[in-house]
Design goal:
- The chain is mainly beta.
- The chain has helices at 2-16, 248-251, 253-257, 293-296, and strands at residues 18-20, 24-27, 30-40, 53-64, 77-80, 86-87, 102-103, 115-125, 133-141, 151-158, 161-162, 167-173, 177-179, 189-198, 201-209, 212-220, 230-240, 258-264, 267-271, 274-277, 285-291, 299-306, 309-316.
- The strands form five sheets. Strands 2, 3, 4, 7, 8 and 11 form a six-stranded mixed beta sheet that branches. Strands 1-10-9-5-6 form a five-stranded mixed beta sheet, with no helix packed on it. A five-stranded mixed beta sheet has the order 12-23-22-18-19.
- Strand 22 (299-306) and strand 23 form a beta hairpin.
Amino acid sequence: IVGIVFGIVSFINSLEKIYKEGHTFDAYGSTITILNSYKTKKDTRGFVVRKDKFYLIVDLKIKNNYEQDLQIPYSNIYLRVSDEKKYSPTDNYVDEFSDFGFRFTSFNKLKKLEERQVVLVYEIDNEYINNDFRIEYLISKVSKDSESGSYQYVKVELKPKEFKDVKTIETKKLGQELSFKNSFIDGTKIKITEVEFKDKYSFNYTQMIGTEKKELFKTIVPKDTNKYRKTIMRLNASVTKNKNLNPVIYTSLYEKFATIEYELNGKTYKQKPAIIDLSSKESEYTYLEVVKDAAKATKVTLIFTIRDKEYRYILVEPKEETKTETTK
């Protein structure tokens, strides 16, 4: 009898054990590791997504152990926020949190023997923002008949990181290479060799249309002239990409992360530039729509903000006055 009781207690304890981030377990033909978690109310551009919600992002590694494609039972990955309340991952906001990595949704499959690092997003009511969080991954049914205690979960306690104080990590000047080290896009580098302001740019470029390469002509002018006078800032920039990152990052690098800061008449201003054109893959030119005052500024800085890290690229800086010596 003692042995039976001990066995039952051990079984219950094994079901109730709560692991920490970094724990690896097997479920439904896959091997899963919960790597990290993050808590935020803002998207990649720094805007609040919804005032009444916050978002918990779970970074995990999944390996398909089968010799065939595997559909992960997405609805089995719960986020527990209280004894009475749990959430399933959302399929919404694919672009809003793309800086965290490859977004995994209920539509995704793993190819045979494929291993991927992906993120899940949970949309949670604000009332639970200060609660404790844990992943509860349903791995099997203990009994088909019993309603109580009939499911077996792997439980992983989360310690989500928050993004509060923004710190400047690196500052570079025109012609130098800026590295986004220690950020979510680590391994990415950018080098800007030229900046120019004009109200109009015209150029020829080539583009594949179907199976044919076509010669095209384009003119770029400011689109938004409602409130402030605008102009075009053209950058000659090359980007070194990290192949392990979500490629969508590089199609909207400036749109997601960039802000223009400029100094004029002793005052500092900031503006989110509009992205005018990145259409020609063969060109290293990027065209940004900015306020016309930026073209007259004594200092212009392109600021990339990636969650709580800031990277500054000085495009224009005050010219040093040349000192002349008089000979006697």
